[in-house]
Amino acid sequence: MRAVIREFSKSVAVLYGRCQLTYNNCMIPNAEAIVADSAKRFFPGLSKDEALASLLLERAQRNLIKYQSQARQYETKYQLPFEEFRQLIVEGDPGEEQEQDYFDWELAVTGIEDMKLELDRLSELLEQWVIA
Predict the structure, then answer these.
(1) What is the per-residue pLDDT for 39?
(2) Structural contact between residues 94 and 104, judged by C-beta atoms closer than 8 angstroms
(3) Which parts of the chain fold into alpha helices (H)?
(4) Which residue, 63, 62, 68, 43, is CA-closest to 53?
(5) Mind giving me the DSSP string for 34-68?
(6) pLDDT at 26
């Protein structure tokens, strides 16, 4: 009976374009069809490219918030803006913790700059699609 059900499921999946191939009698779904279907449900009226750009924009926003939060933690810890802290590190003899904090803080500051650029690029792209 299982074999009959499995064969029927394969036939239905192939009929509806949901199966790409089988491996060890297991169906491997067509990833492109699943992504397209999900994009239509989550982003009605948008193309796959527009949906992807929207998701990337959301990810960039989350990353920006994460990096800003990290930078604020170091500003609070050292009661200095990053540039002044950098000067202290470069001119002084930092301890191991300060040195690690410097690298992590610099990563956060660089991440903020990168995410702002990415947000600008993606926002501009999405605006062009809305206008078109």
Answers:
(1) 87
(2) no
(3) 2-15, 31-42, 48-78, 82-91, 96-131
(4) 43
(5) HHHHHHHHHSTT--HHHHHHHHHHHHHHHHHHHHH
(6) 60
Crossing angle of helices 48-78 and 82-91, rounded to 10°: 60
Decide: 111 and 68 in contact? Cβ < 8 Å. no
Burial of 14 (0-12, 13-18, 19+ CB in 10 A): middle
Instruction: Please list the rounded mean pLDDT of every run of 10 residues in the chain (132 residues).
Output: 51 47 60 84 90 95 98 98 96 95 98 98 92 74
Domain extent listing, the chain: 1-42, 44-132
Q: Which amino acid is at 100?
A: Q
Tokens of 58: 């959301």
**Tokens encoding 57:** 């924009």
Q: CA torsion 124→128→130→132, rounded to 10°?
A: 180
Task: With beta carbons less than 8 A apart as the criterion, state whether 115 and 63 touch.
Answer: yes
